[in-house]
Amino acid sequence: MTALDGTLLQLLRLASPALPVGGFSYSEGLEAAIEGARVRDEAGIVAWLADHLHLVLARADLPLLAEAIVAWRASDIERVASLNDWFSDTRETSELRLQAEQMGRSLVQWLKPECAGDARLDALAELRPAPLWPVAFALALARSGAPLREGLVAYAFAWAENMVQAALKAVPLGQSAGQRVLSALAAQIPGVVDAALALPAERRQSFAPMLAVVSAQHETQYSRLFRS
Questions:
Q1: Which residues 6+ apart lie within 8 Å of 36 measured at CB?
Q2: DSSP states of 128-182 as a string?
Q3: N or C: which end of the chain has fewer CB within 10 A?
């Protein structure tokens, strides 16, 4: 097996829905958007998730992920902690914050056998209030040896696949419709990643008011399939 094969396999593992971090249990507000009839069908799912991709991942998650990968590679724990704090502070609802915390902690547990002897894992586990999802994922990517851009593409595709699976259950959609939605999102991911990599650190932001609204509504939604 070549070094390239090994790196690709690491990215595929990290992007897989089988990664045991509980991503399948979250819809990130999508379930509430469907309940409130803001999203009704396949076209609505594409529009909602594309907005999420461009307004949230491109401006917050992915730029932060890129900065965290660089910080982990340099063992700059102070910078990592600062990025973790920023992500925690910008979660606008308790569900979004708890999701980031739970998935981050779960990834730490998954990484333990992979990171034996790596002091960075101890530093990750000690982050407060918790090691958050993109910061933990950044350590996994830093260790994988994958180029920065490819790591961000893997993160974005993993998010898209989880969201499509949520849509299949909550709308509901058929499998063929789900693949069309995933294809539409996948076509946009490379451009979104390039925009995130070009974004100056001082312009990183988390501002998606409607996402915050539906996420808050989901916290008191009577009947729910998902945890967010």
A1: 214, 217
A2: SS---HHHHHHHHHHHHT--HHHHHHHHHHHHHHHHHHHHHHHTT--HHHHHHHH
A3: N
Contact criterion met (CB below 8 Å) for 196 and 66? yes
Q: How far apart are CA 108 and CA 132, in angstroms?
A: 10
The region of weakest confidence among 10-19, 83-92, 101-110, 131-140 is 10-19
Tokens of 203: 């312009």
Task: Return the structure tokens found at 71.
Answer: 């910080």
3-class secondary structure, 209: helix
**Residue 223 to residues 30, 38, 217, 220, Cα–Cα distance (Å):** 14, 17, 12, 9
pTM: 0.96
Token pair for 110: 């998954």
Q: What is the pLDDT of residues 152-161, one digit of tens each?
A: 999 999 999 9
- pLDDT tens, residue by residue, 7-53: 889 899 999 989 999 999 999 999 999 999 999 999 999 999 999 99
